[in-house]
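Hey team,

Filing this mostly as a record. A colleague (T.K.) asked me to run one chain through the structure pipeline before their review meeting, and I want the input and output archived in the tracker in case anyone asks later how it was produced. No errors, nothing strange. Just documentation.

Input sequence:
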Amino acid sequence: MTVLLALGTAKGLFLARSDDDRASWDITGPHFPMTGVYGVCVDKRGPVPRLLAGVSSSHYGPSVAYSDDLGATWHEPDRPPVAFPQDTGAALERVWQLVPDPFRPGRVYAGTQPSALFVSDDGGVTFELVRSLWDHPHRPQWQAGFGGQAIHTILPHPGDPSSLLVAMSTGGVYRSADGGDSWVPANSGIQATFQPDRFPEFGQCVHKVSRDAGDPDRLYAQNHHGVYRSDDGGAHWESIAEGLPSDFGFTIVTHPHRPDVVYNFPLVADAMRFPPEERCRVYRSQDAGKSWEALSDGLPSEPFYPAVLRDAMCTDDADPAGVYFGTRSGEVYASPDEGDSWALVASHLPDVLCVRAAVV
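Output structure:
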């Protein structure tokens, strides 16, 4: 079994490969040196896997590059693949998210900063703006979070090609039931602690949303203060933060095969962005958030201060599943046994922004 681990950092993309059931890793990079890589996708729908990377160069600007040989060579289009139409008056700052559509072979979605959704039907080579979301009457009131105003979550429904969910900071969760022709906010029960109305229709600073492996209408959300579950596709949310040492954090990840299994990396608070008690611990729930257990076997026992960002934790699609996370201080850890034990994959990397893994 070969597992590819893509590590997007503030200074380029690193690729780690394991051919021995995730016991050891060979690392190459940086690809796109001195370029921020905020979004990575491993698209396995075609005859060969396609890697997509959202790269942000301070000189050339943001773009999307792709590789059909697992990163040995890369292709960047001559013209910007993701660009706002002139009449929007907007300019692309970066691509945060790249997600394949499970029903349409060439379709790939991109989430951007400023908050917008783009769609490609040629495998991620060119993209068009989804005007229905951009023209939503709420959009002028979406605000920027501390990390910017961006769509960072895109969740196609695995059983319904007309159902699509996005989440943004700051704006909240929106969903479409008609293939993206129209959108409604889906934030009932999620708090906005920084607003006078603590439960507004929209405007929440949702940090990440993930979908359950067993029930596609069961969703999990890490909010700016708050960890939530929805059992009706996002129509209503309830807190599942009890049992966690903090309800603040950025990432939330579900198991690829097992229902009701979800992972979280709590931080103290918005003004204290390091782990509670300065301890490096991943928290896992195996009952849809009713209870949580701390996982730390193989993780540092000394005081630990880095944060794990919203897309810097993931799973692969092996069985048993691997779980991975990267830190803002450049460490990357892997668990080959669903979180029970951990080992260091890489250290001294630049700030880790996103992590993606797949069996290739």
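Quick notes for T.K.: The first helix runs from residue 131 to 134. Helices lie at 131-134.
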